[in-house]
C-alpha cells in the first residue's frame, strides 16, 4: 500500500468557495521545495510508515547533532582546564601587580580571551545563517567544520595572548554555524510536538561532553615531559575529533526532500507530516514579510532577553569553572574532576525536561522557572559560604548551577516552537544565538580577580539578577502565549468554524458548480467511501452531527459524497482558514 494516497487531478483542483488559499502554499508566493514533492493539498499519512520515518530520522540526525554540539562545547570549555595546565603563564594571560601588598593578580586578559570567542560568533552568525539558507546545508556545514578543526589545532602554535585572541575570534566565527544550523535542522525534520524532545537530546551533549572532556583533560593532566605542554595536547586532540566529524557532515541532508537515507515514499511522508504542524520545509529564498513579522513579534524579544540572561552563567563557568573550584582549596586535577557532577546535572535534567515538555502540554515555561531556582540558590551558596580548604558548601553550590543547562534548552525549544516558516525560523534561531553570545560575553567580565578575597561578589550577584530577569520574562511570555491561545480559540469558535462550515455547505448544495465538481472528483477518487483508517475530526460534536445530517441529505441527491469525505473537506478548509487568521473570510449567503 502506498504510504500516502495521491490524486492525478490534484493540480486541477480549484479553491473551494468560502475559503482563502494558504499563502504558505500559494503558487504565486515563493514556493517551498516540498510542494514539488507532495503538491499543494494535504494527504492522509499511513501511521506505520510515519513511525518508521521518524525512527530513521532519529537514528541518523540525533547522534550526529549530539556529537557536533558536544564538540562545540568541548572546544570552548577546554580553555578553563588549559589555564590550570600552564596556559596562563605561557601566554601571559594574567598580570601580577607587585607594587601592592599583598600582591594582586589581574586576569582580565583571560576574561577577554573567553569573551572574544563570542564576538567571533556574532561576526559569523549572519554570514553563516545566509549560507545555511542559500546553499546545500550538508556541504556548507562540512566545509566550515573542517576549517574549525584546523583553527582549533592551531591553538597549540599560539605563543602569546594576542595570538590567542585572534585564534579565539576566528574559532568563534566558524563555530557559529553549528547551533544555528542544528536548530534549523530540528525544525525542518520534526513537527512542533517532536521538537522539544529531539532538541533536548542534542543539547544534552553539553553535560555529556563536560564529563567526557573532563575525563580526557584529567588524563592529559597525568602527562609528564614531552615536547609539548599539556594544554597543547588538549587542543590537538579536540581538533582531530572535530575534523573527523566535519567529514561526516557532508552526508547531512538539507531537508526531508533530499534525505538520502529515506525511500521516495518515506520522503513524501516526512514532508507531508510537517504540513500538519504548519512548520514548513526548507526554502532557499528569504521571505521578507517573515522578517518583518519577527521584528514586530514580542515573543521573539522575550526569548532573546531570557537567553541573554540565562547564558551569563555559561560564560563564567566555561572559562573560569575549574579555576574557581581550585580556589576552594582543591588541586588542579581535583578541580577538573568536580566538573563531572555539574555535567551530570546538565545531562540528566536537560533530558528530563525535554521528555516532560514533549508529553505534558503547556509545561515548558513552568519547568523553565523551576530550573532557574537552583541556579539562584547555587550562586548564593558559593557567594556566602566559607572558602576554607576543601570546602564542601561552595562545591555543592557550583554543582547545582548545572541547572542552567535545562533552562537554556527550554528557552531554545520555546522560541523555535512558536514560529513557522523557514525564514522566520532562521531569524528566530539567529536572534537566540545573538542573545546567547551576549550572555557569554558578559559572563566572564563579571569576574573581578581583585575581589577574590570577597568571593567574587560582582559575579554571583550579577548571575542572581540575570536569573531573576529570566523568570520575569518567562512569566510575561506565559501571559502573552495564553492570551494568543484564547484569541485563537475564540476565533475558531465564533468565526472560522461557522464560516468554513457555511462555505462548504453552500458549495455542496450547488451540484452544478464546476469548482465543486472538480473538488468532489478529487476527494471521491482520493478517499474511498469505506476507508480502512478513520480520519480525525477537527470540529465540535455539534458540528459533527450537523455534518452527518448534511452529508446524508447530499448522498440521496445528485452528488454522491460520504460522511467521511464531507468531514475531510471540512477539516481541510478549516486548517487552511486557521493559517490565515489575519484575513477575513466572508460567509457566503
From TrEMBL:
Compartments, record wording: Membrane
Residue segments, region Disordered: 1-28
Protein name: Allantoate transport protein
Superkingdom of this protein's organism: Eukaryota
Bilayer-crossing regions: 110-128, 140-158, 170-189, 201-220, 232-252, 336-356, 363-383, 395-414, 426-447, 459-481
Ranges of biased composition (kind: Polar residues): 17-28
Stretches assigned to the Major facilitator superfamily (MFS) profile domain: 61-485
Key words of the record: Membrane, Transmembrane, Transmembrane helix, Transport
GO cellular component terms attached to this protein's record: membrane
Single GO molecular function: transmembrane transporter activity
InterPro entries: MFS (IPR011701), MFS_dom (IPR020846), MFS_trans_sf (IPR036259)
Species this protein is from: Sclerotinia borealis (strain F-4128)
Ranges in a coiled coil: none
Topological type in the membrane: Multi-pass membrane protein
Amino acid at each position: 500500500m502506498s504510504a500516502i494516497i495521491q490524486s492525478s487531478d490534484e493540480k486541477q483542483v480549484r479553491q473551494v468557495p468560502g475559503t482563502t488559499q494558504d499563502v504558505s502554499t500559494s503558487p504565486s508566493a515563493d514556493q517551498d521545495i516540498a510542494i514539488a514533492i507532495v503538491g499543494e493539498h494535504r494527504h492522509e499519512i499511513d501511521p506505520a510508515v510515519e513511525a518508521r520515518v521518524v525512527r530513521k530520522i532519529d537514528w541518523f540526525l540525533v547522534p550526529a547533532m549530539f556529537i557536533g554540539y558536544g564538540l562545540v562545547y568541548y572546544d570552548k570549555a577546554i580553555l578553563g582546564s588549559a589555564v590550570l595546565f600552564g596556559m596562563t603563564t605561557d601566554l601571559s594571560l594574567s598580570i601580577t601587580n607587585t607594587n601592592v601588598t599583598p600582591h594582586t593578580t589581574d586576569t582580565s586578559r583571560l576574561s577577554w580571551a573567553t569573551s572574544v570567542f563570542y564576538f567571533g560568533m556574532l561576526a559569523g552568525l549572519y554570514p553563516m545563517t545566509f549560507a545555511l539558507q542559500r546553499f546545500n546545508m550538508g556541504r556548507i556545514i562540512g566545509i566550515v567544520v573542517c576549517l574549525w578543526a584546523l583553527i582549533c589545532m592551531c591553538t597549540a602554535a599560539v605563543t602569546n595572548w594576542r595570538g590567542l585572541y585572534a585564534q579565539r575570534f576566528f574559532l568563534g566565527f566558524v563555530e557559529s554555524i553549528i547551533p544555528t544550523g542544528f536548530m534549523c535542522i530540528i525544525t525542518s525534520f520534526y513537527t512542533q510536538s517532536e521538537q522539544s524532545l529531539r532538541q533536548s537530546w542534542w543539547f544534552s551533549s553539553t553535560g555529556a561532553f563536560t564529563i567526557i572532556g573532563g575525563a580526557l583533560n584529567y588524563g592529559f593532566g597525568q602527562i609528564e615531559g614531552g615536547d609539548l605542554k599539556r594544554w597543547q595536547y588538549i587542543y590537538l586532540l579536540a581538533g582531530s575529533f572535530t575534523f573527523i566529524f566535519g567529514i561526516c557532515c557532508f552526508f547531512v541532508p538539507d531537508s526531508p526532500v533530499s534525505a538520502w537515507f529515506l525511500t521516495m515514499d518515506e520522503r513524501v511522508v516526512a514532508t507531508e507530516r510537517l504540513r500538519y504542524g504548519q512548520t514548513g520545509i526548507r526554502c532557499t529564498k528569504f521571505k521578507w514579510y517573515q522578517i518583518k513579522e519577527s521584528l514586530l513579534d514580542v515573543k521573539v524579544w522575550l526569548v532573546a532577553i531570557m537567553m541573554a540572561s540565562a547564558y551569563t552563567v555559561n560564560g563564567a563557568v566555561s572559562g573560569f569553572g575549574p579555576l574557581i573550584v581550585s580556589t576552594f582549596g582543591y588541586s588542579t586535577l581535583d578541580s577538573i574532576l568536580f566538573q563531572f557532577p555539574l555535567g551530570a546535572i546538565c545531562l540528566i535534567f536537560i533530558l528530563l525536561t525535554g521528555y516532560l515538555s514533549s508529553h505534558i502540554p503547556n509545561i515548558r515555561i513552568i519547568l523553565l522557572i523551576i530550573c532557574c531556582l537552583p541556579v539562584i540558590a547555587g550562586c548564593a551558596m558559593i557567594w556566602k559560604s566559607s572558602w576554607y580548604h576543601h570546602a564542601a558548601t561552595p562545591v555543592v553550590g557550583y554543582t547545582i548551577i548545572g541547572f542552567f543547562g535545562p533552562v537554556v534548552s527550554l528557552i531554545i525549544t520555546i522560541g523555535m516552537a512558536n514560529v513557522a516558516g523557514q525564514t522566520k525560523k532562521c531569524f528566530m534561531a539567529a536572534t537566540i544565538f545573538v542573545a546567547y553570545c551576549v550572555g557569554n560575553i558578559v559572563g566572564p567580565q563579571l569576574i573581578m580577580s581583585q575581589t577574590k578575597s570577597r568571593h567574587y561578589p560582582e559575579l554571583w550577584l550579577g548571575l542572581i539578577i540575570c536569573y531573576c530577569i529570566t523568570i520575569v520574562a518567562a512569566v510575561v511570555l506565559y501571559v502573552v502565549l495564553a492570551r494568543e491561545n484564547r484569541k485563537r480559540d475564540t476565533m475558531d469558535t465564533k468565526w472560522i468554524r461557522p464560516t468554513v462550515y457555511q462555505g462548504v455547505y453552500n458549495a455542496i448544495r450547488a451540484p452544478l458548480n464546476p469548482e465543486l465538481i472538480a473538488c468532489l472528483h478529487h476527494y471521491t477518487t482520493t478517499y474511498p467511501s469505506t476507508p480502512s483508517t478513520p480520519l480525525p475530526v477537527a470540529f465540535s460534536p455539534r458540528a459533527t452531527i450537523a455534518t452527518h445530517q448534511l452529508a446524508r441529505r447530499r448522498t440521496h441527491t445528485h452528488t454522491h459524497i460520504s460522511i467521511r469525505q464531507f468531514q475531510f473537506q471540512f477539516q481541510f478548509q478549516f486548517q487552511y482558514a486557521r493559517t490565515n487568521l489575519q484575513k477575513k473570510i466572508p460567509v457566503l449567503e
